[in-house]
Amino acid sequence: MKDKGDGNGNGNGNGNDEIAAAAVSNTGVQGQKPALQVICLGSSGGPCEENVTGFLVRSVARGWERGSMLAVDAGSHLAAIVRILERDFPLVSGGAARAGFDGSVVVNGNGNGNGTAGHPTSSLSPSPSGDDALVQLPEPTVLESGPFAGLKLPHASARANALHVLRSYISTYLITHPHLDHISGFVINTAAFHATSKPKTLAALPSA
Description:
Pfam families: PDEase_II (PF02112)
Number of domains: 1
Number of strands: 9
GO molecular function: 3',5'-cyclic-AMP phosphodiesterase activity; 3',5'-cyclic-GMP phosphodiesterase activity
Protein name: 3',5'-cyclic-nucleotide phosphodiesterase
Region (Disordered): 111-134
Structural class: alpha/beta
Largest sheet: 5 strands, mixed
Strand content: 15-25%
């Protein structure tokens, strides 16, 4: 199994040379190929809300098939995906652009993505699905690095592509227990579920 990454997609090494070598070659300690990829979106129970419990799990054998990812808890969710793509998505990873969920990109003079003068801005709320048909989408970009390496992304901004990942690739949410640090991201992000092709599945572990 691949090593779990943190909110920035980095693996948690333990200093063991054998495990480190296996991680570099994408094989297990015994030489087996990884069966699952685990992306850590958050790993704490608070008090800071930006790094609370949330994971994405997918079968490596299925590739980047739509609906192939399982979210295990969702305290941190869409915002953490945005953060990863802002680092790894080539059009904005240099920090020169900041974009809304509708795909419009805002660029400022100093390259830090905070200025908006003279440029279109967008709401943080997802755009209606009907608007997508009116927007000329660029050619898909295939990520070359990071936890989403190999995934084709259709939009010109990391934020719009994060919403695309949520809507198209995450099919099920498994909540281990209903504490706020495990469900807050899911609750807030339900506003983005309206444009999905089919309902999300919400599952839970039986209580003791």
